[in-house]
Amino acid sequence: MAPASSSPPPPPLPGAKRRIGVMTSGGDAPGMNGAVRAVVRMSIDQGCETYAIYEGYEGLVQGGNLIKKMDWDDVRGYLSEGGTLIGTARCKAFMERPGRLRAAKNMVTAGIDALVICGGDGSLTGADKFRKEWPGLLEELVEKKELTAEQKNTYKYLNIVGLVGSIDNDMSSTDATI
Question: Considering the entire predicted model, what is its pTM?
Answer without folding.
Answer: 0.87
